Amino acid sequence: MTQRLRPAAQALRLWGPRQWGVAVLTGLATALVLGLATVLIPNSVFSREIPPVWWNYPVWLATSALTGVLVASYVSPVAGGTPLPDDDVAAATVARAVESGERRSARLGAAGTFAAWFAVGCPVCNKIALLALGSTGAMTWFAPVQPWLGVLALALSAFAVVHRLAGQMACPVNLPVSTARNAVVPAASETPGDR
Asked: Is 59 exposed, middle or buried (0-12, 13-18, 19+ CB in 10 A)?
């Protein structure tokens, strides 16, 4: 994964205001939905029997930010990005590869956000845990697992973002031609240890 960090960071540097705007709006919307539903943002609609613990807040905010970045990575930097391949066979091959990677990143990101919801929520307010384990079981078995769910949420979300962004640099299909030509594609002679 560390060898994918450099291209992922480069992809972020190429983002325009459109993508950053979507990232901020999606991150805020995710934070609002997760925060209200898990009562990390106090409100009168939802209640929480067990008060939040210190690690709930960083997991909630980091997952929200990563979700925003992941969603924004699907937005074209400018309207009307031009695909690079000129022939139909190459374009179809690239489209299939990109679609497969997009689905993988989207699934991992969704799983990360879902795991964060379970991680930061009240253990006895979670209906699934409550039905499966009962009140005592939720406190005895589910509550100790929640920090690990938080770590899993962050790992899944971070992996999805890095995978998606690195993929944009390796296969810059939706970038404008001028930006895509500046993408760094490793030479065939480079090995992962050379970087």
From this structure: buried
- The answer to whether the beta carbons of residues 98 and 180 sit under 8 Å apart is no
The closest alpha carbon to 101, from 73, 123, 128, belongs to 73
In this predicted model, what pLDDT tens digit does every residue of 56-79 receive, in sequence order? 999 999 999 999 999 999 887 765
The answer to whether 102 and 74 are in contact (CB under 8 A) is yes
**Alpha helix stretches (DSSP H) within 14-125:** 17-37, 56-72, 88-120
Return the biggest CA–CA distance within the chain: 63
Sign of CA dihedral 92, 94, 95, 100: positive
On whether the CB atoms of residues 182 and 87 are closer than 8 A, the answer is no
Distances (CA, A) of 150 to 68, 119, 161: 17, 5, 17
45 phi and psi angles, rounded to 5 deg: -85, -45
**What is the pTM (predicted TM-score) of this model?**
0.74
Distant-in-sequence, close-in-space partners of 161: CB < 8 Å, separation ≥ 6: 8, 66, 69, 70, 73, 105, 109
